[in-house]
Structures are given as C-alpha cells and as structure tokens.
Amino acid sequence: MERKLKHITVPSSEITPYNLYLSRREFIKAAGILSGTAFLAACGVKLTTASGPGTTAPSQVPTQGTPLPDNAQGQTTDELGEPLNTFNEITNYNNYYEFSTNKEAVNSLSQNFKSTPWAVEVGGLVQNPKTFALEDLLKFEQKERIYRLRCVEAWSMVIPWTGFELASLLKVVQPMTSAKYVHFVTLMDTDRMPGEGNPFYPWPYSEGLRLDEAMQRLTILATGLYGKPLPNPDGAPIRLVVPWKYGFKSIKAIVKIELTEQRPETMWNTIAPNEYGFYSNVNPQVDHPRWSQASERRIGELNRRPTLIYNGYSDEVANLYSGMDLRVNY
Amino acid sequence: MIHILGWLPVMWIIYLFFAGKLSVNPIQDVEQRLGHIAVYFLIASLACTPLYTLSGWREPLKRRRALGLYCFLYANLHVLTFIGIDYGFNLHLISGIVLKKPFAIVGFATYLLLLPLAFTSFRWWKKKLGRWWTNLHRLIYLAGALDILHYAWAKKGDIFRLSGDILQPLLWGVLLLFLLVLRLPPVRRMVVNLRSRSGMALR
Prior knowledge:
The complex is a heterodimer of chains A (330) and B (203).
Chain A: H1 18-38, H2 87-91, H3 106-109, E1 119-124, E2 130-133, H4 134-137, E3 143-150, E4 155-165, H5 166-173, E5 181-186, E6 206-210, H6 211-215, E7 220-225, E8 228-229, E9 239-241, E10 254-260, H7 267-271, E11 295-298, E12 305-306, H8 314-317
Parallel strand pairs in A: 1-10, 4-11
Antiparallel strand pairs in A: 1-2, 3-4, 4-7, 5-6, 5-10, 7-8, 7-9, 11-12
Chain B: H1 2-18, H2 26-55, H3 64-86, H4 91-98, H5 102-119, H6 123-129, H7 131-137, H8 139-153, E1 157-158, E2 163-164, H9 167-181, H10 185-197
Antiparallel strand pairs in B: 1-2
Helix pairs in contact in B: 1-2, 1-3, 2-3, 2-8, 2-9, 2-10, 3-5, 5-8, 6-7, 8-9
C-alpha cells in the first residue's frame, strides 16, 4: 500500500520521495536482519547503569534533544532525529483486540470497518456538553505531530499523526471545577468489532487520564496518519495519543469522552491491576512484574535500545508528577 | 517420517524469513514461533503414552524420544534467538531478565530441566541408570507445566484469573492436564478396562 504525501512547503529536493523512503527502509531492514542472523556476533546495546531518579519524579530534568515542534509538517524524523516507521509497519502490527489478538491479522479483519458516520459524545462534569460529529472535530486546528509510541510489550514506533490537542476540545465544553479526570470509551458493537465477543475482556475498552494530563499539549486526539485519514487498524476515525505513556493508554475508536470526579476504570487495570496501573508512564526503572521495561525494540531495528523515561518526553511532562513515587503510582 | 515433521517447522520459518512474510517485528516473530513449536513437540511427546492407553496402538511409544529431542532442538533455537539475536549477547540486560523476571525464570527452568533429559536420551544411559532413568525422565511432567506457565506469563493477561490474552496457553494447559491425568494408575486401569470390554483388539 504505497501513498504519496500531500504537497508540502519544504523544498522537494530535501525530502526523500515517499515510495523511495519506504523501499530504502525495507532494504536497510532486510540487510540488517540478514547480516544479523548471519553473524551472531555480540552487538549488544550499551546500556548505561540505571542510576539517578527513576522512582521519584525529579523536579529538575535534563534536556533531551530539541523541543518538540507544535506542527511537524514535512519532517521525516522525530525531535530526537529518529526516522519515521513506514506506513506498512504502522498498519500491519496492531494491538487492537476488538478485531484480533493477532497483531498481523488486525489489518485484514478491520478492512471493512465503517468509520463514518461517527459521533463523539462529550459530557459528564462539564458546563457545555455536546455531541460532536467527526466533521465538527476536524474543524479544530489539525496539526502534524510526530510521536514515539512505546507499547508495554517493549516495542516501539515513530508515528506521524495528524490531530488536535485534546485541550482545545475540553475548553469548548468547559469542565466544571469538580472535574478531576477524563474518561474515554471505545465503540461497543460486536457486529462491527467481532473481537468484542471475546469473553476474556471486560468490553468496551475504557481508558482515563488525570485532567492535567488531558490538558497537556502533547495529548492529542488523532484523526490522521501520514497526512491521510486514520486507517482502520490504527483506531479510525479518532483515537487518543498520549506519547509518554504505554501504548494501551492511547485508546482507539472513541465514541465517548466524559469528565468525572472519581478515577475511571481502565481496561488493562481491570484485567490485571498489579501489572497495569492508571498512570502507566513509560519508565525503564519501574518494571512490569513479569518482564523488564529497561529496553525496547524499535520496529525496523536489529538491536534493542534503552527505554527512555517518559518515552523521551521528560521535558514536557515530568513536572506533572513531581514528588510522586513512580513505583507506587505505576 | 517423524524426522520430516521435526525439521519442517524450522524450514518453514526460514522460508517465511526469506519470503518477507514474517511480521514487522521479525525477531520477536521467530522467537515466539520457535517457542510455540517447542511446546507442541513437548505436548506431542507426552501424548504418546495416553494414545497407547486409549487405543492399544504401540507406534506412538516408539516416537517419544524423537519428539522429546525435537522439543529440545526448538528450545535451543528459541533460547539462542533470545540471547543472541533479540538481546545481542548483552549479558547485563539478559541477566536482569532471566534472574529477576518470573516469565523468564520459568522459561530458563524449563530449559534446564530439558538438558539432562536430552543428555540421557540414549540407550547407553538407559542401561546405566536403570530404574532411575525412568524416574529422571518423569521430570518432563514438571517441564511441561513450567513451559505452559512460561507461555502464559509472556502474554498480557492473568491466566489464574482467566482474564486477558491467555486462551492459547490455557488450552495447552488443559490438554497437558488431561495427558497427565491419563497416566494416573487408577485412571489408566479404568481406561484399559473400558477398552477391552468394548472389544477393541490389541494390535
């Protein structure tokens, strides 16, 4: 599935043509894997010893890379200089149990999912509750944000989302002073999402954020990928992206957003409360009880890489957790 | 015939790799496939005796060693992929996982249990150890249980609460339980009685 980028303002001589970019990445990946399997030489990741704060959120954090641009249109890397993952990778490796628990099957099983018409009901503790049609939501200022997505399973990708800040939506509905949390719910429809018949999960998928996390500028509602409407395997037509938390917090196919006073129930926390916490901030020093979070595999790369605290977004979000014990509030 | 069955899975994986049909996370794909295949061979080797108990057919009994050794082959490939390719021989990262994380500890324990079984799988050892050979090889029951646990604990979910992504390890666990129960002397006697009473001939 090859698609061309829309017209962009950066001189085209500076940009790798999209299809060439894809084939180069595929070549590098294939060559890397071939040489990797041919030579089982020690090519391990140099991991700096875990020292420094990781259990208590520091109030002073070191700068990591250049600041994240508000609108990354035309960029081909994230703010740390890491290349984007390909459209093929982003749409063929998805944890979307509403369709399948097999990551590679989600694409074909979600092919016929109808994502229009679509409405998102926004309510709860707000002055101005409203149901937004997808067209209404697309009227909010859409920006291109290149974010890393780090799955709790210890793999990650760099993804060029198109979306708008959740804060701009919340400002329209005006949360009341009693509102402390934002609760999100996915579509519940076993006809369109057959995986929701799976009895091992408490459907529908439910997630939540603290209000300040929801108002943080990095928190977006994504409506597009690579400049085109969000593909079905990635949560069409609208999903949350909270890049400093494990991927399962970035709930897909949202139909309801409500402001609440009590902390909302979240799917994975209900399934295994001692493993998946409400915060689920990416943290190499707070392991999953059963596996390590110290390293991850960036899809497309041969070697593992060290995981960054807050997925590399410390500068922007660490202040939200200052003084909190991150081991307790996992 | 059994040797074709034994080598087929790894040939298939190699084909998938060169055909570009592995997932976009090929290292994990290969690692998990090899692990699954090791489980299948382990269960298959444990199914031989119950199959004989249920049907009187002696052929499966002759295949136990081959199936067990293929399980060992795939366990080795799985471990090698984990240590060499996934973690690039980074002993710091590996020891952090294998010594501390439950899912890796049970996996490592399973592998350690398979070692003496593979080592003593030859007839020379059977003669040398006599009765103890049979007792030693009963460790496969423990290895099977630990293997299922390793499988379940590598997934997101809680097998003991029947929640999350645990259907496959659960099914294999139930099958393992069934195969172990069929070995219990009273159960075995009951099955053999039913079999001879229903007139199934012993071949």
